[in-house]
Design goal:
With about 525 residues, the chain is an alpha/beta fold. The chain has two domains: about 140 residues, Immunoglobulin-like; about 325 residues, Glycosidases (TIM Barrel, Alpha-Beta Barrel). It is built from ten helices and 29 strands. The strands form seven sheets. It has an eight-stranded parallel barrel, surrounded by six helices. Helix 3 crosses helix 4 and helix 6 packs parallel to helix 8. The longest helix has 22 residues. The radius of gyration is 23 Å and the shape is globular.
Length: about 525
Amino acid sequence: MFQAHLTVDRDFPIAPLDRRLFGIFVEHMGRCVYTGIFEPGHPTADEQGFRGDVAALTRELGATVVRYPGGNFMSGYNWEDGVGPRADRPVRLDLAWYSTETNQVGTNEFIPWARSVGMEPMLGVNLGTRGPDEARHYLEYVNHPGGTTLSEQRRAHGTDEPHDVKLWCLGNEMDGPWQICRKTAAEYGRIALETGKLMKMVDPTIALAACGSSAHDMPTYGAWEDTVLEHCFDVVDYVSLHTYFTKYRLPTLAPVGTVPATMSTEEYFAQIETTGKFIDEVVAVADAVAARRHSSKRIMLSFDEWNVWYRARHGEHLKPVGWPQAPRLLEEVYNTEDALLVGGVLTTLMNHADRVKVACLAQLVNVIGPIMTEPGGRAWRQTIFHPFAQAAKWGLGTVLRPLVRSPGFQDPRHGELPHLVASVVDDADSGTTTVFVLNRSLDEEMDLTVSLRGLGPDRVVLEATQLHHADLQATNTADEPDKVAPTALAGITLDGETLRVTLKRASWNVITTRSASRAHPHASTQARTTG
């Protein structure tokens, strides 16, 4: 066992936590939509064809925002194909994923479904095969109250009131060689500027996210963000970041057939620090553009694609044969190790709450998703479901600046890294304070002391859980859906503003306390100790 210390102080906040940090991503890809969220004829399907079991799990997941309809799919999508009577909608070849798209789910089906499960839509416009004119027409169709051809068309399609979507993406990964109608930074910056101008003329209340570079290791990274923002700085509110965590040492643009080396688990977990560095670098570029313009405006970050993804990343997982409908693509099966990494990344996103205002775990179901389904059958939670759901549940209030003191390990890229990874979120309105803690030591338990300065000495534990499994490769399946799941965390002591607990090796832990005078009736009432 080793000693570790975490100190926070209410007088030293980072920023209020934007709830849109707990977003998700739904793309018309593989089985995310069809046999994922939507499957007419399923025993749980509603009258629109959406699966009730997936809807229930989505509510439990607690996602606040959903990015739609892509992804790479977005760069070849005609929004008009997904509106109007379903029987009249065209069937198209989807060039992004070599699949056949039926368009049975589109704007007027998806947005009401998303809101019914607690998510606000973040829509994307196609800046690959299309451009500013189609984007402003889509916005008018979606958001304008009535009296114009497009808004009246929406009303004729059965949606009388405007959808009032406030958050929009200007294309997707436009520097990627894999992207339909890839752009140079200057080309994309110009089209993003002109598209943004038109869209904000139609509806000045919307917020826009410009594409950042597709990955941290892209040759275009850094210079892309600088050039793009130099063009569209005045009309956009966010720049996007995308990252997928891997155990393979394989660059994004590695030649097909390259045999990857495998990282150690400690190197895998060190990608938590890589994420923080990524965020800091993009902030620095955005602020450099602002400085050159003598502008006080600050571009915020939309981390709108992130997840673990490396096992199902090649061959048939990306390019099916024969243009099938809803093929099995990118169906990554997550283990305990992956869940711990996801928890650690969530702490990093929260600890950058001053600039990261939107984030989307990619994707919701089947396709690198926290939820898995069987067509016509069961749905279950993957391991990564749990840390996300807990962060979404308890990530309320203001993030406090964490001071970490902990032994650690040596990483070839980042040097000495602590075993302790943590974020603390304090909600002064409700009196709750939640400590999110990852012990990434693979061998030793952690004897953790948490100093909660300025939060009041009279506190009780409201809820405390740990996610741990002796086998880091353990997974959840349809037959064993709860093999890896949170359990009660015992042995917590509270003495004034000091919390002490022993954490298992390789474990993700969430501890919520509340001021005793405002405690929930089901909170522990033991004077100084709770189990």
